[in-house]
Design goal:
Largest sheet of chain A: 6 strands, mixed
Distance between the termini of chain B: 64 Å
Helix content of chain B: 55-70%
Number of strands of chain B: 3
CATH class of chain B: Mainly Alpha
Largest sheet of chain B: 3 strands, antiparallel
Strand order of the largest sheet of chain A: 6-7-8-3-9-10
Radius of gyration of chain B: 20 Å
Shape of chain B: globular
Number of helices of chain A: 11
Strand content of chain B: under 5%
Number of strands of chain A: 10
Oligomer: heterodimer
CATH architecture of chain B: Orthogonal Bundle
Radius of gyration of chain A: 19 Å
Order of helices and strands of chain B: EHHHHEEHHHHHHHH
Structural class of chain A: alpha/beta
CATH topology of chain B: ABC transporter involved in vitamin B12 uptake, BtuC
Number of helices of chain B: 12
Strand order of the largest sheet of chain B: 1-2-3
């Protein structure tokens, strides 16, 4: 469905952020994209959705295709119309508008009466909380409700592929579970999902395929269960160590150890 | 300018009541301020930019009417036997269409490259646009005021105790219609997209909203509203001589109205416009004479700014402005 090939992105003409990454999201899949801060996850999202320009970013190499059509450097409105929606990092809801108006703004490309109604009902079915707070000002919702609204707003575009950028950011563990369940539900309704996360446990537990990025490169990919069992993933993303081993302070300072990825 | 039975030329009528005349003046000024303010508001609400070129666009709109109606005789030359008001209304319509196109062109050339830049920088660009548009317009106008060639002239409805100029009636209807239409517009698909774009441009683009279309729509509407205000500024009873090089500065007198109303509210623009219009009209008819000599002349021009300061102290976001969202 979505294919990214050898993507290279440069910010401000000098900062090389993506050094030729490739990834693929198949029909009806949930794909997890993991990586630490600064690995280039959000840049990947921006390249796919056409939002690099305001950040002075340029795609210098590579190609992005969606359902066979090339969308490298297409306009964001075009990309949304083709069926790729995103939930931006940090929710970015329209805080001064009501919940309903946020959803209407989300439905800009999906504005015919029938399509709007169907999407609206779908969102209200997924998020009963939003239904209760329909006419509340979005900025006064709780963090969890705001994340629901951000996801709902993207769903209003009736996407074929939804990209979520750190939906678990700043949420309590129970809410993280709730968000995870909702992503599974959305996927079961037929929408493919690309899940960009730092919360490896959450992302890999629902993904069909996982990618791990580091400093602009894909360092590992494969079956999520296999990734979860990988020693490096365990140490760097899950904070686990092989049990029973004696640990010295030198081992704890893992940032000093060179990371070796075997894939 | 043939007066019919109801109409008597202003000078010949009996003495009207001072208060009623003040109300008429307040409605006249208030309506113009409200039109100017709504024009500011729509551009501000879509782009978060304070449009300093608004006054220049107002003068340009009035100039377009003046040249269409009196110099070029468009569309009068194509409909030779039409009554004066028909060809004049036609000229106004064409001028408004031209104003919309000019607004869109200005946005496309000067402001589109600034998408994503600091808002402050964009506001400065509009300041430059003001200088350019104002000087070109003033050059076209020339040193003499240009009458707009309207068929109303100085005709009034004379009710004895009050004289209501035809223009004030027309202008009140137009201003109320414009405010109502814009208020309704903000509930439409494009209106919601505008508010979203104003709040967070990047997030709006991420929803598939075409920010470019939002911007050019708001500038087209803003320029039309500015032109309408400019036309009424250049008619009796404000300036019956027509549009002249000082017309562009009139718009800045609407700033207190915008700020009192709250910058991003259409209702606020109307209420703010009327408050300022009435305050100014009231001050110029009552705060004069021997008892008020210490205020000096031209005090009425200061009253709006005094009101603005009082409102800002009590409600920093204006009477109808959106309060900043703050979660604790």
């Amino acid at each position: 469905m979505l294919t990214v090939e050898n993507l290279e992105v440069v910010y401000n003409d000098v900062v090389l952020v993506l050094r030729g990454i490739s990834l693929e999201v198949g029909d009806g899949q949930i794909v997890a994209l993991l990586g630490a801060n600064g690995a280039g996850k959000t840049t990947t999202l921006r390249s796919i959705t056409g939002l690099l320009d305001v950040h002075e970013g340029d795609i210098t190499k590579g190609e992005i295709t969606f359902k066979g059509d090339e969308i490298t450097e297409a306009l964001p409105s075009k990309i949304v119309e083709m069926g790729i929606s995103q939930v931006m990092e940090g929710r970015r809801i329209f805080a001064e508008m009501t919940v309903d108006d946020n959803l209407r703004a989300g439905a800009y490309v999906n504005s015919n009466r029938a399509g709007y109604k169907a999407s609206y009902d779908r969102v209200m079915g997924l998020f009963p909380r939003l239904k209760e707070r329909r006419s509340a000002t979005a900025g006064y919702l709780s963090g969890g409700e705001q994340q629901m609204l951000a996801i709902g707003r993207a769903l209003m575009q009736d996407p074929k592929l939804m990209i979520l950028d750190e939906p678990s950011l700043g949420l309590a563990p129970l809410l993280v579970q709730e968000v995870r369940d909702i992503i599974v539900q959305i996927n079961e309704q037929g929408t493919a999902v690309l899940l960009i996360e730092q919360n490896a446990n959450m992302a890999l537990s629902i993904a069909h395929h996982g990618y791990i990025m580091e400093t602009g490169k894909m360092v590992m990919d494969g079956d999520p269960q296999k990734l979860l069992k990988d020693d490096d993933v365990k140490e760097f993303y899950l904070g686990l160590h092989a049990s029973g081993e004696k640990k010295s302070f030198r081992d704890v300072k893992h940032y000093k150890r060179r990371k070796r990825w075997l894939s | 300018m043939t007066p019919d039975l109801l109409v008597v030329i202003a000078q010949e009528a009996s003495t009207p009541s001072k208060f009623a005349q003040m109300v008429v003046d307040g409605v006249n000024l208030g309506g113009i301020y409200a039109l100017l303010a709504v024009g500011f508001v729509i551009i501000f609400r879509a782009t978060q930019v304070l449009n300093f070129a608004h006054g220049a666009l107002a003068a340009l709109g009035a100039f377009l009417v003046a040249s269409f109606a009196t110099v070029l005789d468009i569309p009068g030359r194509w409909i030779p036997n039409a009554p004066a008001w028909v060809s004049w209304t036609g000229a106004v319509f064409l001028a408004l269409i031209a104003a919309a196109l000019i607004g869109m062109a200005l946005e496309r050339v000067f402001l589109r490259p600034m998408v994503g830049e600091e808002l402050f920088a964009v506001a400065i660009v509009t300041l430059g646009m003001d200088i350019v548009v104002r000087n070109i317009t003033n050059d076209w106008i020339g040193p003499q005021p240009r009458p707009l060639g309207d068929p109303f002239g100085i005709s009034v409805f004379d009710l004895g105790w009050v004289r209501i100029p035809y223009t004030v009636v027309t202008q009140t209807v137009v201003a109320l219609l414009a405010v109502a239409l814009i208020a309704y517009f903000f509930r439409s698909r494009m209106g919601v997209a505008m508010r979203a774009t104003a709040f967070d441009q990047e997030a709006a683009r991420a929803q598939g909203i075409s920010v470019g279309r939002v911007f050019s729509t708001s500038w087209a509407i803003g320029a039309v509203l500015a032109a309408l205000a400019g036309i009424f500024i250049s008619l009796f009873p404000r300036r019956s001589t027509g549009v002249d090089p000082t017309t562009a500065f009139f718009a800045f007198r609407a700033f207190p109205a915008i700020i009192i109303g709250g910058l991003d509210s259409v209702v606020g623009a109307l209420v703010g416009g009327l408050i300022v219009g009435f305050a100014e009209a009231g001050a110029s008819s009552y705060l004069v004479g021997e008892n008020w000599e210490f205020l000096g002349t031209g005090f009425a021009g200061i009253v709006p700014y005094l009101l603005m300061m009082v409102v800002l102290i009590i409600r920093p976001y204006g009477l109808f402005g959106t309060e900043e969202i703050r979660r604790v």
